[in-house]
């Protein structure tokens, strides 16, 4: 079990990278603490697998260091790093039985037979594959094979970390949820550092205590699911987390606050000052659909006409066309099923506590009480 530290790490698949766009991973510093359950979340192509393969030793980074408990492991193989990795598709020996597949990593280490029997039984019970132990792996279904593959990753209790690269992709949707819960239980029981790569926010937040959100070769935020929801550090996190994502609206500073679609929204002096410090960069206001408040048209400076209403069972998502300038944006608001659906025109309020500002996509930090 280990703390994994990435120091000045960067990677390019080009032999002679010319600029930042040639890097699959931009220079980063990051720490995965010993015993943590982490997710690495981001869209396809953002660099998740590259980062995971660098941590495990399948790929040598073009710049920087990977440290396990303070010691550099650059140049060491995954075996020498003592790391287990579970991939998207099963990696198992088809001609062996399930039992022998699970026992293989322990036999390699010359563990005593009693210990092997004990661990194989424990892992098979946890993954609910005990009844398959004596079957040949080639006769299993895709789900079963992937469970065995996961079992091979979990069977050793002395690994520095277990890395999962979208391990549930081939698993039946019904089973996915149960397996995620199982992985969480296994983590709680064995306290092994686990990093779980996924592009699915639900998968990330059911498994992980903390999520690293990756975008364009960088970790743009590392936080609890709640922190990512309430306080996105980057517009990408606002957009990617949540369903639908945050409303991100272009604004410009004005005397009293900001202008949105030609309408002035007054802000507290501390907020205005914080925004002024960022100068003339591209400014956006971020508000999650959950926090948009609807009132009578006369009670708000911002007004909107109600468009499409999507009924999603326990809540509804409304499309609201803001009024004002010709290019006034469309925003989304979420209302609970017991709230009446307004029609025609509504007043729109952005509660100060939940309004965020982004300068060139980066959150403008406010001092205590400085949120608008
Ligand atoms: N072996 C390679 N050679 C060249 N470029 C590569 C190689 N592997 C990945 N890349 C590029 O590096 C970038 C990051 O890819 P990576 O596979 O790490 O992303 P990812 O977030 O894991 O995506 P996915 O979820 O689709 O696997 C992409 O632009 C990809 O095209």
UniProtKB/TrEMBL annotation:
Organism of this sequence: Modicisalibacter ilicicola DSM 19980
UniProt protein name: Glycerol transport system ATP-binding protein
GO terms for MF: ABC-type ferric iron transporter activity; ATP binding; ATP hydrolysis activity
One cellular component (GO) term of this entry: ATP-binding cassette (ABC) transporter complex, substrate-binding subunit-containing
UniProt entry keywords in alphabetical sequence: ATP-binding, Cell membrane, Membrane, Nucleotide-binding, Transport
Pfam family, one: OB_MalK
Domain ABC transporter intervals: 4-241
Domain of life: Bacteria
């Amino acid at each position: 079990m280990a703390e994994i530290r990435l120091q000045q790490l960067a990677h390019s698949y080009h032999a002679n990278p010319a600029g930042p766009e040639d890097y699959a991973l931009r220079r980063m510093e990051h720490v995965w603490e010993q015993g943590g359950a982490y997710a690495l979340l981001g869209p396809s192509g953002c660099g998740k697998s590259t980062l995971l393969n660098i941590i495990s030793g399948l790929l040598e980074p073009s710049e920087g260091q990977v440290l396990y408990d303070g010691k550099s492991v650059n140049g060491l193989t995954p075996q020498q790093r003592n790391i287990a990795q579970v991939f998207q598709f099963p990696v198992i020996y088809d001609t062996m039985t399930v039992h022998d597949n699970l026992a293989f990593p322990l036999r390699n280490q010359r563990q005593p037979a009693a210990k092997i029997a004990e661990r194989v039984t424990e892992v098979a019970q946890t993954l609910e594959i005990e009844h398959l132990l004596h079957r040949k792996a080639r006769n299993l279904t895709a789900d079963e094979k992937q469970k065995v593959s996961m079992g091979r990753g979990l069977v050793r209790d002395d690994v520095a970390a277990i890395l999962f690269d979208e391990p549930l992709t081939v698993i039946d949707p019904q089973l996915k949820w149960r397996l995620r819960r199982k992985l969480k239980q296994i983590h709680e029981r064995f306290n092994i550092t686990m990093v779980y790569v996924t592009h699915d926010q639900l998968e990330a937040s059911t498994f992980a205590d903390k999520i690293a959100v990756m975008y364009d070769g960088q970790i743009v935020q590392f936080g609890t699911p709640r922190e990512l929801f309430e306080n996105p550090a980057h517009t990408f996190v606002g957009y990617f987390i949540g369903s639908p994502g945050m409303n991100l609206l272009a604004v410009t500073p004005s005397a009293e606050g900001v202008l949105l679609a030609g309408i002035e929204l007054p802000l507290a002096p501390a907020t205005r000052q914080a925004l002024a410090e960022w100068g003339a960069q591209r400014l956006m206001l971020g508000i999650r659909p959950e926090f948009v408040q609807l009132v009578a048209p006369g009670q708000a400076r911002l007004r909107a006409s109600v468009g499409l209403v999507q009924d999603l069972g326990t809540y509804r998502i409304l499309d609201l066309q803001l009024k004002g300038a010709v290019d006034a944006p469309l925003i989304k608001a979420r209302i609970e099923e017991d709230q009446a659906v307004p029609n025609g025109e509504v007043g729109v309020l952005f509660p100060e506590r939940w309004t965020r500002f982004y300068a060139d996509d980066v959150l403008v930090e406010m001092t205590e009480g400085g949120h608008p």
